[in-house]
Design a protein that fits this description.
This protein is mainly α. 63% of the residues lie in helices and 5% in strands. It starts with a strand and ends in a 7-residue tail after the last helix.
């Protein structure tokens, strides 16, 4: 039986040139350290230190540049974690892969999904690792494969570090090979490789001259590389299976409460009002104790969508039935949503720690450095308007410059000559151009001039208005950036803006003030976890009040308890950054307005008063 005799021992498929057992062991150790809070692994410590900077980066990104991402695909937590992977230097391939697996685990944690094959396959860090590793292997494997083909066809006399039971045939041509092949690449050759090498050698042996020989060696080496590449792809899939099997799963049973709700509604349908009030009460308490409000899960999406659509539907229905008390309550609620609940949160300032993190440059890129940034977009718009104005003005000048020539041809002018003191022109007073027979010709010339001027004025006014709006937007954005960011960030913005404006020679009237008063961000209710919970509580209590009955006391009491406990614990602030990102948690010294808590306490207190004191519900 034919065999490939390797200088190195062929290791099992999963191990190839990576020690997979070592990778899995390192990955498990990283998970244990992350969960225990004891960080001995340098990369785990690096990730832990920069997770808070990731959260700040996304907060400032939304504050300064909005939530719309101008990218081909929507970004995920994996894209944000990938920044850390890119900024961490690692020599060992095994450790690089373990780092990628750890970031994929964090991606699933942040998004609230299970650590599965699909999670890993969608991880930018994991895909980047195998992309980089495949390039490394390809470069070296092609050298090895060219060496093998050229050796067995007489192109080189130096034997490669792998032997085949094949005859050496000398074509009389030469091939210069790179003989520096890492030993780990040898282990990637498939076990049935000799037959494929023989077919490739037969193809090379058909060469008629040196040039064709060189082409055939390169082409057949590339074809053999696909066999090695397929093996790497299989290994990539096997690693994804190992990731899913190795990573501990969280038991998520909270969704079972919906089955319980359904059972209770069916089993006690005659007391549906009581069951519905109990369901609303349990959801109020569930939201109060939940730490998953920020997660981008299907459960959260469905829950919030149902609440919002039901709230809108019932309000429209109440307006139609002319029950304006609830409408006024809804109006007050909507107004309060836009009132900041935390004023000037100092803890959200851009500090030195953030400036030294990998996310500082990422934020700069997305706010003003990148071509897709809002700053660059506005500058391009201003440049396009100035260029359009220049071209249109040139056309008008060229058109008007032809007018004296027309009058000379018509005989209205005898002479027209530029002089150092101005334009000298001599009108022919006796010209037939001024006679009554040339009314139509004079009107025709005037109409041509008037049309050109009217078109120019209309377009130029529009361009000027759009230019002023763009300039005001840019000034507003620069002022906002200067207000909420650090001095270093503002200096970088100033330098970048100056360099950008130097490239736009027509934009000459732009000056910015980078020394405005520094402020700290204020947060509206929907920007905090407690505020989001209070919004949900309002919806649920609103539905409870509409449902009515004596059991409305239960949701009202639950809301009163939740609102009071939130008001007492107001100093512990959790900032909602975006779905799929851990909230920023800290003890704050900012002023709190309590307006959402007051609304909920008043709403629930009125319901309790009407039922306990007056013993009736009056919607």
């Amino acid at each position: 039986m034919k065999k490939i005799v390797l200088i190195l021992t062929i290791i099992p498929l999963l191990a190839f040139s990576l020690d997979v057992e070592k990778v899995v062991s390192m990955y498990k150790q990283m998970l244990d350290e992350y969960r225990s809070g004891s960080y001995r692994d340098p990369f785990v410590e690096f990730v832990h230190e920069n997770l808070s900077q990731l959260q700040k980066y996304r907060f400032f990104r939304r504050l300064l540049a909005g939530s719309v991402e101008k990218t081909e695909f929507a970004k995920t937590a994996g894209d944000y974690l990938f920044v850390m992977y890119q900024n961490w230097k690692e020599e060992s391939w095994e450790k690089k892969l373990a780092n990628a697996l750890f970031l994929a685990f964090l991606q699933s944690e942040m998004s609230g999904s299970e650590p599965s094959r699909s999670t890993l396959k969608n991880s930018p860090s994991f895909n980047s690792f195998f992309g980089e590793y495949k390039m490394y292997v390809r470069s070296n494997a092609l050298n090895l494969l060219r060496w093998i083909l050229s050796y067995y066809t007489g192109g080189t006399s130096t034997p490669p570090p792998v032997e085949f039971n094949l005859e050496i045939k000398n074509l009389g041509f030469s091939f210069e090979v790179n003989q520096s092949v890492p030993q780990d690449v040898l282990t990637l050759l498939p076990e049935d490789f000799e037959e494929k090498v023989k077919i490739a050698i037969d193809a090379v042996l058909s060469s008629k001259d040196q040039s064709e020989y060189r082409r055939n060696v390169n082409r057949n080496a590339s074809l053999l590389w696909k066999e090695v590449e397929n093996k790497i792809s299989i290994i990539q899939n096997n690693i994804a299976d190992l990731f899913e099997k190795t990573t501990p799963k969280k038991v998520r049973l909270l969704w079972l409460r919906y089955l319980l709700y359904s059972f209770l509604l069916v089993a006690f349908r005659r007391k549906y009002r009581l069951i519905l009030q109990l369901i609303l009460s349990s959801e109020i308490l569930f939201v109060w104790g939940s730490n998953t409000v920020h997660l981008n899960t299907i459960e959260n999406i469905i829950f919030s969508s149902i609440l919002i659509f039901a709230f809108i539907f019932f309000n429209l229905l109440l307006i139609r039935k002319r029950k304006y008390g609830y409408t006024l309550l809804t109006a007050a609620f909507l107004i309060l949503l836009f009132v900041p609940s935390y004023i000037s949160v100092r803890e959200l300032g851009m500090d030195r720690e953030f400036e030294n993190s990998p996310y500082y440059d990422q934020l700069k890129s997305e706010v003003f450095e990148s071509n897709n940034s809002r700053v660059k977009e506005i500058l391009r718009e201003m440049s396009a308007l100035s260029l359009a104005s220049k071209e249109h003005t040139k056309q008008l000048v060229e058109h008007l410059s032809l007018v004296p020539e027309k009058f000379l041809k018509e005989g209205a002018l005898k002479e027209f000559e530029p002089t150092p003191n101005g334009i000298f022109l001599l009108i022919d007073e006796q010209s037939q151009f001024f006679s009554t027979s040339n009314f139509e010709r004079r009107l025709e010339i005037a109409r041509e001039m008037n049309t050109s001027l009217e078109d120019y004025l209309s377009e130029e006014k529009s361009r000027y208005r759009r230019y002023r709006n763009a300039l005001e937007s840019l000034e507003h954005l620069v002022k906002k950036i200067s207000t909420y960011t650090s001095n270093r960030f503002v200096e970088d913005l100033e330098e970048d803006l100056k360099a950008s404006l130097d490239r736009y020679s027509l934009i000459t009237d732009v000056t910015f003030s980078f020394t405005g008063e520094k402020k700290y961000p204020s947060l509206k209710p929907h920007q905090t976890i407690s505020g989001l919970k209070e919004i949900f509580w309002f919806f649920l209590l609103f539905f409870s009040a509409l449902l009515g009955g004596k059991y409305v006391l239960i949701p009202a009491g639950a809301t009163l308890f939740a609102a009071l406990s939130t008001a007492i614990n107001w100093k512990h602030l959790e900032v909602f950054v975006e779905s799929g990102i851990f909230p920023i948690s800290f003890e704050t010294s900012a002023a709190h307005t309590f307006h959402m808590e007051i609304l909920l306490i008043a709403f629930s207190a009125i319901i309790l008063y009407r039922n306990l004191v007056k013993r009736r519900v009056k919607p």
